[in-house]
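Researcher: Here's a chain I'd like modeled. Treat it as a single chain, no partners, no ligands.
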Amino acid sequence: MSHDHDALHRGFVEEGFAIPRGSLVDPDTLAAAQAAMLQVRDGTFDTGVPPSGHPGYDPAKLCKINDPHLASHALHALVSDPTVARLAAVVTGARRIQVWATQLLIKPPATAAAGHVGWHQDRQYWRYWQQPEGLFTIWMALSDVEADCGPMRFVRGSHRWGFLDQGDFFAGDHQALRDGIDVPDGETWEEVSALMPVGGVSFHHCLTFHGSDANTSDRPRCSVAVHLRTEAVEPNEGDESYYVSHLADPAHAPVIYDEDDA
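Model: Modeled as a single isolated chain. Structure tokens:
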């Protein structure tokens, strides 16, 4: 493991997130994904399969399209990018990594509170898995993410607080959410902005508190969030929820890294 890789792994374990430097996605894959993002946004699905959820695009608020990788060959290739997948294995220590859900997130400019993502732990929405360990997200930037774009912000070390079941992705009042989160005694609420160039990525644990503010820039902030499991976690026995019912289908749930094949 290189020095940089060691630092990323240590950051993920100790702080609950890791933000590598620079653009990591293959340039051709990235360019194709950027074009595909607009096609899927506007209702064109070159696989012939729609996303699992598409609310339509409203330039006045955050747009969240569920499972765009089902609708686009280029977005499926993006979430399977082998360089990113290998780094994910290093960062998390995984032997096997499988995608089980994705989200296309477009935060238009000048959306004010309608562009907020409220403070939350992903585990709040992922109760069909047996335990939080082994569940994480890769966030992939399809535009430059600078301080005025409403970048994602992580709360350092909050994955070690356990599952608090507090916060709300869909709520816009950050201070009210923050006031309702019981920070354990001896811990501090320290926010770190995930700034990165187009093609950059971040990794975060499913118990890490995170959220984002409004996009005050003059350009949209665009990304794909990829939700993954390692070999360490299985669905709850007998659970028939949507996202754990398609794990045998490589279109829905591609295995992007397997140590036995590396």
